[in-house]
TrEMBL record:
Domain HTH gntR-type: 16-84
Keywords for the protein's UniProt record, in alphabetical order: DNA-binding, Transcription, Transcription regulation
Any one GO biological process: negative regulation of DNA-templated transcription
Protein name, as recorded: GntR family transcriptional regulator, phosphonate transport system regulatory protein
GO molecular function: DNA binding; DNA-binding transcription factor activity
Alphabetized Gene3D superfamilies for the sequence: Chorismate lyase-like, Winged helix-like DNA-binding domain superfamily/Winged helix DNA-binding domain
A Pfam match: UTRA
Keyword Phosphoprotein: no
Keyword Transcription regulation found: yes
Length: 247
């Protein structure tokens, strides 16, 4: 049975705009559990009818909720209640699939692009390679259920990981792709974290508004012999995860 909201009584002419009253009513609906995490909100047309306003007013209210991280507008699909931020531990063994599965959600990674490129100065230093040495560059998006949590650029040394992109595309997991390439365990050598606004392409991949804050996590992983095997730059949607730094 669909959730039934109480019909509101918008107060007119007393200083509080209609869109703000609608936003507050929807916030209350979410807080009381009328609409739960992951649930789709009624359409703009349905909300406009509920509040007896035009769709532009509803759109402004939904934009305010999206700016506050309470909902996510997905192009062509509708508006969904955001889940509570996922605790994401950063430690010696950081595994996206295990972290997401541990929170009771389904993890998957999508491979968007793969190419052989010359290592830039940053990637060469991280992977202990000569500048310009060939590396495999992957562009990925990582999801918890249907929600994108992060997008990443990953660099791996060649020819050692020449089959990695195919393994990742088939398995949807960095850890499982490493195992398919003969690396059964790996650990985190270094992590750096900063924050900045998302550009338009990053926002599209993360299904957020351009300019929203992302946390940029740059990391290097090594194999059991201490050899660098992965340099990574991951962008997390800041309101969907809480990075937990541990030893």
């Amino acid at each position: 049975m669909e959730a039934q909201a109480q019909m509101p009584g918008l107060v007119r002419g007393e200083g509080l705009t209609a869109w703000r009253q609608i936003a507050d009513a929807l916030i209350a609906d979410i807080a009381t559990g009328l609409y739960t995490a992951g649930q789709q909100l009624p359409s703009e047309a349905a909300l406009a009818a509920r509040f007896a306003v035009n769709r532009h007013t509803v759109r402004r209210a939904l934009a305010a909720l999206a700016e506050g991280g309470l909902v996510r507008a997905s192009q062509g699909r509708g508006t969904f209640v955001e889940a509570a931020p996922l605790a994401y531990p950063i430690g010696p063994r950081t595994r996206f699939s295990e972290i997401v599965a541990g929170a009771g959600r389904e993890a998957w990674g999508d491979l968007l692009a793969a190419a052989t490129v010359p290592a830039g100065a940053e990637q060469a230093e991280a992977l202990a390679l000569a500048p310009g040495a060939p590396v495999l560059e992957l562009l990925t998006v990582h999801r918890a259920d249907e929600t994108p949590l992060s997008t990443a650029l990953t660099w791996l040394p060649l020819p050692r990981f020449s089959g990695f992109s195919e393994a990742y595309a088939a398995r949807g997991s960095i850890t499982r792709a490493f195992a398919a390439c003969g690396v059964d365990d790996y650990t985190r050598l270094s992590t750096r974290i900063r924050a900045r606004p998302a550009d338009a392409q990053e926002a599209e991949r993360l299904d957020i508004a351009p300019g929203r804050v992302v946390m940029v996590v740059s990391s290097v992983n090594i194999d059991a012999a201490g050899v660098p095997i992965q340099a990574n730059r991951t962008l997390f949607a800041a309101d969907r995860v809480e990075l937990v730094i541990g030893g």
